[in-house]
Write a structure and sequence with these properties.
With 250 residues, the protein is of the alpha/beta class. The protein is built from 7 helices and 10 strands.
Length: 250
């Protein structure tokens, strides 16, 4: 047996596929894994739950990251250590752009590094960009499914309640309106860390998120999350199929 057991995700080489879908919530792992052939749980520790199955006869895994940059970086580093080279965040986000609606998908081309984890990897001037092959596969999959989607920039931040209740904070961060005027589409907590780790470790990284609280709407977030996940998951699965086929082409 291999002695490369990873400290946090508790995976060894051979437990995970080279393609990994990465939701934040462990509760979403099995939902995604149902789209794989023969998926089974291979590891569970802390916030990290992993199922592995197959698509197109190729091993594909689903690993939860927990919330935010630190746990996402750990998951990415340890997945890469056991052989993963294509990491795609599959999650939810709050809209910044006013023309987005609940359930719309956003394919990330890049992410604002409004978090601290990626600063341990590279200086603040370094851009957090998604891999072009992954972006193209996600866009193609979303377009083919007819799902409402936009491709553009996400903002990744650390402090959830600083956005939800900024008036209660002793320090006022950059208002969301600034990001809106700059063309940022939605806000979440993991993409910029994942993109930075992917760049530094020379693997492909990308992200697709579903909007769960559009700016102009008042919604029950729990209900909306349940409604919006299936198009999100199906699009991510179809994108993995496209990448597998492209990687197998002569």
């Amino acid at each position: 047996m291999s002695d490369d057991l990873q400290l946090h995700v508790r995976l060894r080489s051979g437990d995970a596929g080279r393609y990994v879908l990465m939701p934040g919530d462990p509760g979403r792992v099995e939902l995604i894994a149902r789209h794989l052939d023969g998926a089974r749980q291979v590891a569970s520790n802390r916030e990290y739950l992993t199922f592995t199955g197959k698509l197109e006869g190729t091993p594909v895994s689903v690993t939860s990251t927990g919330i935010g940059g630190p746990s996402t970086a750990i998951a990415a580093e340890e997945l890469i250590a056991v052989g993963a080279d294509t990491l795609i965040r599959v999650g939810t986000a709050g809209s910044i752009a006013r023309d987005l609606r609940t359930g719309d998908l956003v394919v990330a081309q890049a992410a604002v590094r409004d978090e601290g984890t990626s600063l341990a990897y590279v200086p603040a001037a370094f851009p957090a960009t998604a891999d072009l092959q992954v972006v193209n596969a996600l866009v193609e999959a979303a377009r083919a499914a007819g799902n409402p989607f936009r491709a553009g920039i996400l903002r990744s931040a650390d402090a959830f309640y600083a956005d939800v209740a900024p008036a209660t904070m002793p320090y006022q961060p950059v208002p969301l309106g600034v990001w809106e005027r700059a063309g940022v589409l939605a806000s979440e907590m993991e993409a910029s860390t994942l993109f930075t780790v992917g760049s530094v470790r020379r693997v492909r990284a990308g992200a697709i998120v579903a909007v769960v609280n559009a700016t102009e709407e008042t919604v029950n977030t729990g209900d909306v999350v349940a409604l919006s996940l299936e198009p999100l998951i199906a699009t991510a699965i179809d994108a993995i199929r496209l990448l597998i086929r492209a990687d197998a082409a002569p």
